[in-house]
Amino acid sequence: MLVERIFAEAASQCHFDINYRSALWPPAEARAFAESRAAEGSVHLPRPYEAQTVFGLDGGAEDVLDVLARRAPKATIALLQGGDGSTVLDGGRVWRPTIRHTVQMVDPIGAGDAYVAGYLWATLRGRMPQEAVNVAATVAALKCSTWGDVALVSPRDVEDALVGGPDIRR
To answer: How many beta carbons lie within 10 A of that of residue 160, not counting itself?
Structure first.
């Protein structure tokens, strides 16, 4: 059955978001943990400040992804860039959202977590990388249109936003 195969495959992988917090551990420990997981082929989702703080990397998105990919060649790595979108390296290819939503900004807190949730939701359901990046960006945009830390959106909300146009208002 398809669902069983998806969950069996997902269980064999490690998916994580660094979500670095200096109060929890120093950068060197966070880096060691991240690199040990990324070596297993995990999804690795740093933001620009995490790439700089944890990995000591500055520069453009593709430069950062190139360095991280050399350290963890089997990993899928997404660099989240806030309002500028994201850049994802998966299977040696770079992906960016092809949908750019105009958002009625209400509250950006939690948008990064919403992106991660959308990306994982899409990939665990067998969506191709470009679709997963678009879904992730859409979930993050939907989150920004509501108050609170949590993206209270349904799969229908996401699908409607993907096909219904670039404006997101709630």
So the answer is: 15
Instruction: Compute CA distances 147 → 104, 106, 126, 151, whole Å.
Output: 12, 6, 30, 9
Ramachandran angles phi, psi of 24, nearest 5°: -95, -35
Q: Residue 18 has which token pair?
A: 């660094």
Sign of the CA dihedral running 77, 78, 81, 86: positive
For 13, the token pair is 């992988």
Nearest C-alpha neighbor of 128 from the set 90, 75, 166, 73: 90
**Predicted confidence (pLDDT) per residue in 23-61, tens digit:** 999 999 999 988 887 777 777 778 888 999 999 998 899
Q: Which residues pair with 44 in a beta bridge?
A: 16, 77
Contact 118, 112 (CB under 8 A): no
Does 58 qualify as catalytic in the annotation? no
CA-CA-CA-CA torsion sign (149, 154, 155, 160): negative
Which ranges in 56-98 belong to alpha helices (H)?
Answer: 61-71
The closest alpha carbon to 44, from 24, 22, 64, belongs to 64
Distance from the first to the final alpha carbon of the chain: 37
pTM of the model: 0.84
Active-site residue among 113, 149, 160, 167? 113
